[in-house]
C-alpha cells in the first residue's frame, strides 16, 4: 500500500512538471505572436492633400517578408521594409530584426473618390503567417466658396453708395468675381484684398490670404425698396459659386429730436436726455456728448407711436425713442452744450443740440495740519486736511514750489465736514493725508499747494508759504584784485575802488542779515585779496552758492559811466533764463526794464526761482529809490553769469555810480552804506 502511494505521488509530480513545461511553451509562443501597427495615418485622419504617407512597423517570430497596403480592401502597393525602429527593437528584443521593423508607403489619393476610406496594412511573415492592421481616413476635396459680408441681409440704406464686400476661394485659383444687382450684371469686383482671417479658417486655397473682394454700386442704380445683390465667383477651371443678400433702400432724410432737456434750461441735479431719431437705414447707436466729450450711449428701442404716425415709412419708427440719465456730478458747472448724435446703419449721422446751465455749489478745501508761515524745520510733516466737491473728489495733488510731489491719500472720515457741507458727495470721507518730507529740501521759504480735482474736472486749490529751517543767504562782494578787478575812479584826488566799496557794503549787509536770524556766507572775506581770472572768479562764486544750496544769492556792485559824470542812480539785475533749471519757453527777447543787451535770452515760463528773483530785484531798487532818494534805474532781466547760473533766487545790485562825484561820496560814506544794507535786508526779510 505504501509502495502504491509512492508510485502515485511520482506520477502526480511528473504530470505537474509536464503541464508546467507545456504552459511555458504556450506562453512563449503567445509572447512571440506577430504584430502589425500603423503609426500614420491616425484613426479618422482627414486630408485635402493628393498623397498620404502610410507608416508603421511589423514584427513576427520568423521575420517580416512583405507588407501590403490596401485601400478599401484593394491592393494599393507594397511598402518599403527595413526602416530603422530602435524603439521597437528596445521594446521587443526577442523578435527577428525588430530594430529594423519599420515600413512606409505613399498612397496616391488622386485615384480615390472624396469621402471615407479604410487603409489596411497586411504584414506577411517569413513563415507565411499574416497580421493585418487598419485605420479609417477621409479624403476631402476643396470646393469653391464665396461669402458677402456687406451688405448685411435685410439692412437699410438711404443715399449712400452700396459697398459690396466679401471674399471668394477656389481650389483652382480665382479668375474673376461678377457683381449683379437685381439679376443685372454691374461689373467685376476688385479681388486680392487681404483676408488673413479667411486663410486661417480655410487653409490651403490658392491666394487665400488675399481672397477679399469689393465693388461699389452707385446709389442711383438702386431701386427704392427691396434690392438683391449677388456675387458670382468663377475659378480658373470654370467652376462657379455665388452668394446674395437682400437689402432695402429708403432715401428719406435722417431726423432727430431732443425732448429733454429743454433748451437753456437750468439744471441742479441728475437729468434725462430723451428724444427720438430716425434714419432710412435704421439706427445703430445714439451717442450723447457734453461740450463735445462723449458721456454715454443712450438706450434705444423706446416706444414712440407718435413718431411712427408722423413718419410711417422709416424703419422701426415705432421704436425710435432713446433715453440716457446723466449724472450732474460728472459735469462742470456753467453753461454746457448737450449734443445727441444718432448714427445710422449706413454710417450717416444726424445731431441735435441743447444748451443747459449746470448749477452746483463751489468746491471747498482746507489744510488743517500746517499753517501759513510755519517752519517745517527739515522734518517729515503730516500734511492733512479736507476737500469737498459736489461731484466728489477724484484726487488731491501735492506741489512744492509748483513741483509735483505726489497724490495725497483720500477718503478719510470727516464727520465734521459732512455736518458743515451735508449736500456734497462723500463729504463724510473728505479727509486727505500726505507725508511731506522736507529733509532733502533747501532752507528758506517754499510754496506748498494742495490741488483737489473733482470728478467733473473742477479744481480747487489751497496754498501757503512755509519755511524749512534757518535761511542761508550768500552775499557776494563783487569783483577781486586780479582778472576780475572792479571799476576804479579818482575824483579830486580821492580814489574810489568798486572792489573795496562792494566789500564794505557786503560786510554791513552780512551783519544786518545775521542780526535778523539768517545764516550768511560771503564769497570772499575782507582780509582776502583773490586774483582769479574773470572766468574762474565767476565760476567759484556760482559753485559756492549751488553747493551750499543757498536760499538766496545777493551780489553787491557799483556802477560807472565812461562818458558822463552826471549819470547817477541805482539798478538791480536778475535772470529769467535759468538753463540748469528749465529750458522750456526760452526765446530771444528784450529786457522788460528797457535796457538793450546783445543775445538776451528770456524765459516766457519762468521758474519759481526766477520769479522770486524778479520780485526781489524790483522791491530792492524801488526801496532804495524811495527810502534813500536815489535815482531809480529799475530792475533788469540781464542774464548775468551769477544770476543766470545759480539755482536759487539771485540778484545783483548796482549801489550807485562812482563816476559821479556826488554819488561817489555817498557810496563811500559808512553811514550811507549802512542805510543801503538796512534797506536791502528789509526787502529780503519780506520775501525770505
TrEMBL record:
An annotated GO cellular component of this protein is: outer membrane-bounded periplasmic space
**InterPro entries under this entry?**
MurNAc-LAA_cat (IPR002508), N-acetylmuramoyl_amidase_3 (IPR050695)
Query: Which SMART domains does its entry note?
Result: Ami_3
Q: Which UniProt keywords apply?
A: Hydrolase, Signal
Supply one GO molecular-function term.
N-acetylmuramoyl-L-alanine amidase activity
**Presence of keyword Oxidoreductase:** no
Annotated GO biological process: peptidoglycan catabolic process
Q: What is this protein called?
A: MurNAc-LAA domain-containing protein
Q: From which organism does this entry originate?
A: Clostridium manihotivorum
Amino acid at each position: 500500500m505504501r509502495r502504491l502511494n509512492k508510485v502515485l505521488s511520482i506520477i502526480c509530480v511528473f504530470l505537474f512538471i509536464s503541464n508546467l513545461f507545456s504552459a511555458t511553451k504556450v506562453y512563449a509562443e503567445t509572447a512571440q505572436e506577430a504584430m502589425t501597427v500603423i503609426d500614420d495615418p491616425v484613426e479618422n485622419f482627414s486630408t485635402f492633400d493628393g498623397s498620404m504617407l502610410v507608416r508603421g512597423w511589423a514584427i513576427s517570430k520568423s521575420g517580416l517578408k512583405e507588407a501590403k497596403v490596401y485601400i478599401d480592401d484593394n491592393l494599393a502597393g507594397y511598402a518599403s521594409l527595413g526602416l530603422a525602429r530602435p524603439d521597437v527593437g528596445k521594446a521587443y528584443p526577442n523578435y527577428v530584426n525588430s530594430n529594423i521593423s519599420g515600413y512606409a508607403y505613399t498612397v496616391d489619393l488622386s485615384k480615390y473618390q472624396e469621402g471615407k476610406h479604410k487603409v489596411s496594412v497586411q504584414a506577411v511573415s517569413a513563415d507565411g503567417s499574416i497580421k493585418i492592421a487598419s485605420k479609417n481616413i477621409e479624403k476631402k476635396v476643396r470646393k469653391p466658396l464665396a461669402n458677402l459680408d456687406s451688405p448685411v441681409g435685410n439692412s437699410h440704406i438711404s443715399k449712400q453708395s452700396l459697398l459690396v464686400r466679401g471674399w471668394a476661394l477656389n481650389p483652382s485659383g480665382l479668375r474673376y468675381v461678377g457683381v449683379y444687382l437685381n439679376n443685372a450684371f454691374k461689373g467685376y469686383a476688385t479681388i486680392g484684398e487681404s483676408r488673413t482671417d479667411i486663410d486661417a479658417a480655410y487653409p490651403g486655397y490658392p491666394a487665400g490670404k488675399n481672397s477679399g473682394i469689393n465693388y461699389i454700386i452707385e446709389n442711383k442704380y438702386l431701386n427704392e425698396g427691396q434690392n438683391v445683390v449677388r456675387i458670382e465667383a468663377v475659378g480658373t477651371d470654370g467652376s462657379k459659386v455665388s452668394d446674395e443678400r437682400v437689402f432695402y433702400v429708403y432715401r428719406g432724410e435722417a431726423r432727430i429730436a431732443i425732448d429733454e432737456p429743454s433748451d437753456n434750461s437750468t439744471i441742479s441735479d441728475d437729468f434725462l436726455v430723451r428724444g427720438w431719431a430716425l434714419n432710412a437705414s435704421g439706427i445703430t447707436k445714439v451717442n450723447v456728448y457734453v461740450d463735445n466729450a462723449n458721456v454715454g450711449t443712450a438706450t434705444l428701442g423706446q416706444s414712440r407711436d407718435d413718431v411712427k404716425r408722423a413718419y410711417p415709412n422709416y424703419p422701426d419708427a415705432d421704436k425710435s425713442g432713446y433715453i440716457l440719465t446723466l449724472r450732474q456730478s460728472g459735469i462742470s458747472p456753467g453753461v454746457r452744450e448737450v449734443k445727441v448724435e444718432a448714427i445710422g446703419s449706413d454710417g450717416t449721422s444726424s445731431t441735435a443740440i441743447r444748451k443747459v446751465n449746470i448749477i452746483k455749489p463751489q468746491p471747498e478745501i482746507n489744510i488743517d495740519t500746517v499753517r501759513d508761515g510755519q517752519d517745517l524745520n527739515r522734518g517729515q510733516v503730516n500734511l492733512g486736511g479736507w476737500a469737498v466737491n459736489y461731484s466728489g473728489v477724484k484726487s488731491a495733488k501735492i506741489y512744492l514750489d509748483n513741483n509735483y510731489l505726489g497724490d495725497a491719500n483720500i477718503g478719510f472720515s470727516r464727520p465734521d465736514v459732512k455736518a458743515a457741507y451735508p449736500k456734497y458727495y462723500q463729504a463724510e470721507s473728505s479727509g486727505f493725508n500726505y507725508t511731506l518730507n522736507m529733509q532733502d529740501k533747501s532752507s528758506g521759504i517754499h510754496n506748498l499747494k494742495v490741488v483737489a480735482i473733482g470728478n467733473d474736472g473742477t479744481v480747487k486749490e489751497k496754498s501757503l508759504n512755509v519755511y524749512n529751517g534757518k535761511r542761508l543767504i550768500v552775499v557776494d562782494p563783487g569783483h577781486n584784485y586780479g582778472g576780475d578787478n572792479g571799476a576804479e575812479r579818482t575824483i579830486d584826488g580821492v580814489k574810489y575802488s568798486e572792489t573795496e566799496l562792494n566789500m564794505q557794503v557786503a560786510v554791513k549787509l552780512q551783519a544786518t542779515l545775521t542780526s535778523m536770524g539768517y545764516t550768511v556766507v560771503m564769497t570772499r572775506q575782507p582780509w582776502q585779496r583773490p586774483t582769479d581770472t574773470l572766468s574762474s572768479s565767476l565760476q567759484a562764486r556760482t559753485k559756492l552758492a549751488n553747493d551750499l544750496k543757498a536760499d538766496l544769492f545777493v551780489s553787491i556792485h557799483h556802477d560807472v559811466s565812461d562818458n558822463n559824470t552826471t549819470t547817477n542812480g541805482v539798478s538791480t539785475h536778475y535772470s529769467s533764463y535759468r538753463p540748469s533749471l528749465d529750458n522750456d519757453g526760452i526765446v530771444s527777447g528784450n529786457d522788460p526794464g528797457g535796457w538793450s543787451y546783445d543775445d538776451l535770452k528770456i524765459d516766457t515760463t519762468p521758474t519759481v526761482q526766477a520769479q522770486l528773483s524778479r520780485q526781489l530785484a524790483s522791491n530792492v531798487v524801488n526801496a532804495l529809490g524811495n527810502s534813500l532818494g536815489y535815482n531809480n534805474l529799475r530792475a533788469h532781466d540781464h542774464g548775468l553769469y551769477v544770476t543766470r547760473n545759480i539755482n536759487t533766487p539771485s540778484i545783483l545790485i548796482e549801489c550807485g555810480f562812482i563816476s559821479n562825484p556826488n554819488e561817489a561820496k555817498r557810496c563811500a560814506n559808512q553811514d550811507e552804506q549802512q542805510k543801503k544794507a538796512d534797506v536791502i535786508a528789509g526787502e529780503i526779510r519780506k520775501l525770505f
